[in-house]
Amino acid sequence: MGAVGQSVPRKETWEKVTGRTKYIDDNPRPGLLHAQIAVSPHAHAKILSIDTSDAWKIPGVRAVITGQYYPILTGSPLADRPPIAIDKVRYYGEPIALVVAEQEYMAEMAALQIKAEYELLPVVHSPSEAYQKDAPLIHEHLAEYKRHEEVYPEAGTNIANRTKIRKGNRQEGWNKSVHAIEVHVTVPQSDHAAMEMRCSIAEILPGGKTIIHSASQSPYVIRRAISQSFQIPLHNVVVHTPLVGGSFGGKSAIQIEYLAYLASRAVGGKAVKLVNSRELDMISSPVHIGLDATIKLGCTHEGTIAAAEILYLYDGGAYADRGAVMSRAGAVDCTGPYRIDNVYCDSLCMYTNHPYSTSFRGFGHPELTFAMERAMDLLADQVNMDPLEFRFHNAIGPGDTTPTQTLLDRSNIGDLPMCIAKLKTVIHWDDRPILEIDGHLIKVKGVCCFWKTSNTPTDAGAGAVVIFNPDGSVNLLCGAVEIGQGTRTALTQILAERLRMDDRMIAISTEVNTETDPQHWKTVASRSTFLVGNAILKAADDAIEQLKNIASIVLECSPIELDVGGGRVFFKNRSDSGIEVAKIANGYKFPSGNTIGGQVIGRGSYAMRNLTLLDPETGKGNPGPEWTVGAQAVEVELNTRDYTYKIVMAATVIDAGKVINPEFARSQITGAMSMGLSFASREAFLFDNKGVILNSQLRTYKLIRYGEQPEYRVDFIETPHLEAPYGLRGIGEHGLIGMPAALANSLSTAVGVGLNQLPLTPESIWRTVHDSV
Amino acid sequence: MPSYDTALYPMEFHVNGERRTIRVRAADTLLYILRDNLGLTGSKSGCDNGDCGTCTILVNGLPQKSCLMLGVEAFGQHITTIEGLVNSPVQEAFVQKQAFQCGYCTPGFIMNCHGLLNVHPDANEETIRVWLESNICRCMSYEEIHKAVKAVFTGSRKS
Amino acid sequence: MIPFDFDYYKPASVQKAVEWFQILHLQGKNPMYFSGGTEMITWARRNSIQPGAVLDLKAIPECNVMDFKKDSLVIGSCVTLSALSATNLFPLLSETAQGAADQTARNKITLGGNICGQIYYREAVLPLLLANSRMVIAGLKGMKEVSIHDVFFQQIRLEKEEFLVQIVIDRGYLSLPYVHYKKRQIGNVGYPLVTVAALKKDNQIRTAYSGVCAFPFRSFEIEQALNDPLLPLAVKIEQAIGKLPAPILTNAEGTASYREFVLKQTMAEAVNVLEGR
Question: How far is it, in rounded angstroms, from Cα A17 to Cα A14?
């Protein structure tokens, strides 16, 4: 029986239940210095002066620096962000100074002593406000910022990026439409809130070698960023990333690493640690993106969607970071998984005076899906079609094209109609009414569909090295970060399958070390099993070839007569005859002592193929190798007296291509579903009218806790993606994507009023119902 | 303006069954002391504000948040951290049900659950919920945790 | 992490505590009593308070009692909320205490700490207000026992060197009919949108509130309205709302208007249930 498809436990299982796991901050070391940042109390202001003299008076302080210490602009795709503010602050919580001290508490006290004077500027509170013609400018020098990837900022505005989709003919679409709806939705910014706070340790050795330890999804990007920003040769920057205590996209941005590096530089290269408090992790480090959206959708008498006109205004916050790329991802998949011939979409990343946004599980999709699927429910209602039937009728499939005019086939799109059909069974859609009333309790279901492709750079890639030990066991080296998703274990399964060996004979470290592990773009976008998996398959094939070559000499045959499996190299036609891998893994020693071959080391690498940049005027291009599609449902029980509700059930049917580890796959989906429900039902930053965040603690920023999880129903379709290892598709983010939409659709049906603003708190429902009367 | 004239307090307490004698800063929390003075990094910092439960330990058998306790308050007390658990059925159940993803909240959940098992070996669903909602798992592996906890308490009722 | 240093004292008697406090005060140490310490730690780590010395009251025997003395229940200020709930001598207090924070925090939070805290809610006060309980307070002149209504008005009013030793509740209150509602928008852990504790004595309903205003309170005017036999329920509630002692709170848990909406419902629920008992 092969390793792929088995629920093998995580390699690091016992460490995790015994507290022996070492996360970034779990290695106390003598002599380590501690950094702390002072942050802006204002959302938008000119910095008139910063007085650090009182901070210097705190005993144990070794350095105090401000933005002037090393004035650079960082950020990708658009270099618009100083690691420490220079001249002005653009969000509440922005670093304005940094202190290094002997003890953590000294650094904290010294940071509290930093005094700055400001001249307040008008605050831009939302992407819609930022889009107004007379909105205050947040970046006056937008045109001058260096661009690293495709990005289209518009100087003189608050637009950090605009992606246009022009597919078909807008007028023709409207001419065909008998029914039309328009919907506005709002998704506020919220937080990743990984349990482990961001932390980075930097050290600059006398020879110039720079060592960064960081809880990150992007160790290789840290290496590149530090190398570029501080002119250090790439090979002289070493990044270590141990097991990460949750990240959800939030640890893919490079932020705290710059600060740790500057802190170390300020004290002559000594090792300095910077760890966020929970409060700073929420407000100062990058957050989950928000969205203001307007969708107009039209369909024919038969319910065939003919036109979509879309404006997505993503809340990128004070700096563009990955918000710019997310707004592009939002354009690429702007319609949701539906066949629409005429699409007109502008998707923008707007600057606001909010914390800046970076990737969050789903990368712009949960937000656009909330908008699009609210529109779908409204239109279905207008055509008087069953909401799932309406989606089934318009589901995208082979032969159709996406908004970027990519032609779809079975391999790259999978099988959405099958997902919808299966969802119907899973949630007993046809057997029970959508809405059941019992006194003041209403039980109601809401549904939605989702899709997502990866929007990686067109050259994103990964490498892998497979090293055979003398006993035939194997060490796997690769750069995928273990953030809890089980990737590193799943990758050993992929390797075990290819080498036809016991996966327990394959070791993989918990840590990624950029000095010894081959590069992997980033552990994001549900891409690691795809990119690293493909590299591993090549490395495995390389190793197999080496094993066969040595074995062929020993067995006096041709390599093509041989096969590898079960710890042996054997004849294809006489499997009982062969040689143990252990005897040849480090070369074969003849009885005479003469040795042939050497250690078997397989190498492999893989990069994205056939991806193209998008045409700036039409959006035409190929954004990703495949889509993952699925259908979801939520059932709630609403109390019509006070609008409190209970999420009773949540369901996902997803086309996973191939499930590598069923237990991991299910927990990725269910965890993502609850995360989506948590953010849809309660999570949002609460800003006052000055742009100050009022809920920067987990006491007031609430998350779903034990006992609130719904009953989960998860099912998989397996339509192979031919380019991927064993046909797999990305699934790490997708369980989250449709949850806000399905929840909103269920609650909207329950109260009979459209609920188009997240989070769906009882108060917001009450207010909407109250206002509509 | 504080001037650090840090007086260190002699501390004697029992940690994982061993008597420990150390000197601590009065303003340091027990969490900090366990991690930085004693190297017991299994207890995690997730908020330092008593809101998330990643730092949960047992004080005289009862689960508490070590970030909400000064180290000096633990004088003479019996402290158990995740490192002090040996063959707890809770750990075994978490392994069997793979009741974690990133694992960062796991020590806190296990300590809380272990404490509950000691105090209420026959705890019902409601009691289990009330105790375990003290902890947050952001990977939201609540279903798996629920299965693990159920296995533990079903097992304890049988024996 | 608490960014400043303080001295730590753990007096073993009431007298020592007061004495040491006085000495530290004279030394300009800005001393502070604490029992559970949870709130002290959370304020100090944010640098919102800067005591130069803290006095841990947990070693004082009187602060740890939970027993009947004649016809009164005496609860020490250092008894934890979870111990209080587990022993369950005063069911309304048990239930109210059970609503604060979460279980592992309640293993540390004490009754005295909850009453004397700075956080708006201080829910454990509600049953004590309803039961006209008495507070045993230690000070420079020794111990005194006073009505809660004389020392708790929005918050505890103690002299600097005074601290709460015990709470005394007449046995007669412990078994009266009661209701307790803690309403949150969502979830089972967290501060209240509205908490209402109510009990019925001599055919009169008494109510106390947390989460409604920026302090917990019991209002005799509100009780008058709610107990007026001539008024229909809706009018009682309207009148009661008109007697609130301060503007309704708006914060992360909810705005004033939604709070008022929920408060009215909760008041009605409380009155309905207790009128039937």
Answer: 5
At A307, list the tokens. 């036109």
**What confidence tier does B3 reach under pLDDT thresholds 50, 70, 90?**
low
Instruction: Give CA–CA dist A676/A669, Å, rounded.
Output: 10
Distance between alpha carbon B105 and the CA centroid of its chain, in Å?
A: 10
C271 within a domain of the structure (yes/no): yes
Minimal Cα–Cα distance from C233 to chain B, Å? Answer: 34
Question: Which of B94, B98, B135 comes nearest A667 by C-beta?
Answer: B98
For A699, which of C190, C255, C262 is closest by C-beta distance?
C190
Q: Which two tokens stand for residue A629?
A: 């599609």
- Of the candidates B79, B48, B34, B53, the one whose C-alpha atom is nearest the C-alpha of residue B135 is B53
- Residues A226, A84 share a domain: yes
Q: Are residues A669 and A545 in the same domain?
A: no
For residue A282, the chain B residue with the least C-alpha distance is: B47
Alpha carbon of A309: minimum distance to chain B alpha carbons (Å): 36
Of B2, B26, B64, nearest to C107 by CB-CB distance is B64
Tell me, yes or no, whether C95 lies in a domain.
yes
| Residue of A403, A449, A624, A606 whose CA lies nearest to A526 | A624
**Pairwise CA distance, residues A209 & A205, whole Å:** 5
What's the predicted TM-score (pTM) here?
0.97
| C68 and C163, same domain (yes or no) | yes
Interface of A with C (CB under 8 A): 104-106, 108-109, 112, 277, 641-642, 644, 681-682, 686, 694-695, 699-702, 704-705, 707-708, 761-763, 766-767
Bond before A28 cis per omega within 30 degrees: no
What does the pLDDT look like over A267-294, one tens digit per residue? 999 999 999 999 999 999 999 999 999 9
Q: Give the phi and the psi of residue A696 in degrees, each rounded to 5.
A: -100, 20
- In a domain? residue A53: yes
Beta strands in A368-428 (DSSP E): none
Provide the domain limits for residue C135: 61-173
Chains that touch C (3 or more CB pairs under 8 A): A, B
- Give the Cβ contact number of residue A78 at 10 Å: 27
* Segment A211-224, tens digit of pLDDT: 999 999 999 999 99
Is the ipTM reported for this complex over the cut 0.95?
A: yes
Question: Are A294 and A439 contained in the same domain?
Answer: yes
Chain A hits for B107, Cβ within 8 Å: 19
Residue B124 contacts A, CB cutoff 8 Å: no
Structural domain harbouring A534: 460-607
Which of B61, B83, B105 finishes a domain? B83
Measured in whole angstroms, the distance separating CA A282 from the mean position of its chain's CA atoms is: 17
